[in-house]
Fold each of these.
Amino acid sequence: MKLSRADFPQGFQFGAATAAYQIEGHRFGGAGPCHWDSFAATPGNVIRAEDGALACDHYHRMEADLDLLRDAGMDAYRFSTSWARVLPEGRGTPNAEGLDFYDRLVDGCLERGLKPYQTIYHWELPSALSDLGGWTNPDVADWLADFAEVICGRIGDRVHSIATINEPWCVAWLSHFIGHHAPGLRDIRAAARAMHHVNKAHGRTMTRLRDMGHDTCGIVLNFEATAPASDAAADIRAAATQDAINNRWFIEAIAKGSYPAEALEGLEPHLPRGWQDDMAEISQPIDFLGVNYYTRNHVQAVEGVPWPSSTVVDGPRDKTQMGWEIFPEGLHGTLTRMSRDYVGDLPIFVTENGMAWPEEPDHADGVRIDFIERHLQAMHAAIADGTNLQGFFYWSLLDNYEWAFGYEKRFGLVHVDFDTLERTPKASYHALADAIARKDGA
Ligand code: FCB
């Protein structure tokens, strides 16, 4: 890679990201059942019905995995804390083994000079809470805040940063309207409620974290560059609606205390009564914004189907193993849009960006190296254009459990053999380590 650490501002953080259910091995250490276990156990939801029971066995290999981050010269590690591991019933008595695990994880980061960036919720909702309606139940706001109090009460004195929720769009829309993620609902009323409750849970958790004295708190949102499939008026309108649902709903609630009209058009009839009363707590200040960015969507209007009356069609550029179009300009556009329209000079982190690619002989990985380099260039350009971007976390450190796609899609800098669980750094790991270490600029 031509770019190196020297091209980025002093103090810019280089790291990698993971999430608990995708790597830990959920069957170990007294974790309770979560909605991903039962979703995966239902035919047709996940490729080969794979689940996170073993995953990368990070639960037992955590020290060696932290060594991989340190040996790449990384500054920071973004991980998540599993709700069902800490509170197997979702509420009530904590699992001492689970708390001990995160305690060791945080100490393990600090011993290696890695700043711990915690995400409180990255999707493993305890089954006991999904039995009560999960994200469709307004009480989820207090449930999440209570969980935050337990886990941050234990590790909050040592973590560098705390994000409340990873990707509310996936928690709400992908899981309750598209039905692709647990709990797999396809219901506009459930989706609208989840779309609001996830914001409410963020706000309630922020309040609790502030009460506990934390001052480096924020949220991680996902964004997709969104383009109309053609210049027909119907496609332009459909793309604007998708942009409102995917890219504006959450940040507008947090930064401005309102929801975009294009999304309210379809969702308002299904929102919980009195939702307006929650907007003040939702829009309290945050200390940073996490941006996850992967691809661009081309949106086409579809006549004769209910709102939002559209579908996503293939774009012209090269695709990753996920079929996601590679479009680095969209990262630049997202970052500059965030600072211009929503958060001003607030610190922004790219908390996820990466790509899936099949195994290659000798883990050559040239496509991924090129992908990282082009997205680093996009970040570099956004900084030059005035965005207060303070760090980049590659998704992901390891090949892992890619949700409904099981173990097939490989996002890692480090290859995992899912028979032996052996880790082998790919060429992209070495290329990024080299870029992080080099003091000469491009
Ligand atoms: C994001 C998720 C992460 C991973 C990547 C590929 O939406 O946050 O867990 O699945 O996509």
Amino acid sequence: MSKPFVAILMGSVSDLPTVQPAVDILRQFDIPFEAKVTSAHRTPERTHEYVRDAERRGCVVFIAAAGMAAHLAGTVAGLVVKPVIGIPISAGPLQGVDALLSTVQMPGGVPVATVAIGKAGAKNAGYLAAQILAVSDPNLAERIASERRDNAEAFAAADARLMDQLGQG
Ligand code: RP5
């Protein structure tokens, strides 16, 4: 059996700069991934073929990013029973609210775990994929927990500096 990996699908090459934080987080935790440009509307057959093939080859989490009438994540969710994370992209005059609603409003029984619009959402998509993999990977779980502890310490240190600056120490 091949090594488990995450598949990142995006509806257009123009989505890549927004999706990049998800890629960065997966790289940070040494999680194998594939990135693919494929569209629910422009290349529907290619999307179906890729998703089915990726699942067969060991994909355990799908991340799907799309803008406007964003049906990519929902399409993937309809094809597999692996977790699907949807990233709504801001790509038109509605600034991503269109994509958010398209991605999040799935019918019962076919969920898409929808994150925030844009780069903040992409970053959390990377973390969520990592946390899903960490359920069966204690080393990965410890790396994620360790980063959380480091962040909490940095946050407390920043608060202490602010207290000093304001003479409230
Ligand atoms: C969506 O339409 C894509 O995911 C992208 O966010 C948006 C615009 O695509 P391009 O016209 O830039 O290719 O399907």
